[in-house]
Amino acid sequence: MAKAKKVLLINSHLTYPNWTEGTLNNAFYQAAKDFFRSTSIEVLETTIEDGYNPKEEVQKHLEADIVILQMPVNWFGAPWIYKKYVDEVFNTGLFSKTFLTDDGRTKDDPTKQYGTGGHLQGKKFMICATWNAPAEAFDNPAQPLMQGKSVADLFLNITSNYRFCGYEIMEGFNCFDIFRRSDIAKDLENYPLHLKEVFRLSHLSQRENLN
To answer: Which cofactor(s) are needed, names only (predicted)?
Structure first.
């Protein structure tokens, strides 16, 4: 009998009262939770703002086949509580030698490259982000701020942590221009379709594997 699949959903929203309450990020988080439960995939959850135990978070990462970070883009990155979370959880995974043992290089084999020493191969990581920025700000050299860079370029500091430990980085989902658009509900409708396609899952079926 095949081992049941698990997904870890991480909500990194940081509440600023009377300014940003996290309603939209919570909606995407709930959409992902509902989708994976409908596919009979067990959902593990962490809301960073509510507190966490680094050792328990390491265990969740070890159990989960998929990790999805839900985040608002605050000043072109995740809220600062996510960096604190990463430092504490990934250092715990390093010290326990469960995430990785070293950086991949060895004296015996000079062909082994930096960033290939992770122990978590076969796992997948994805970001779902909400933005004030419009989609056209990216992948366009004529745009003065990003100068042709992509969302993936901007998030390299986040995805590199997971790639360093062996994860495959999956195509993210972005909800752009949230303060100016009136059709954000369409993104919430399309998000489960994105998850289905990216992870090659059949709705209401656990027969297909994730690889």
So the answer is: FAD
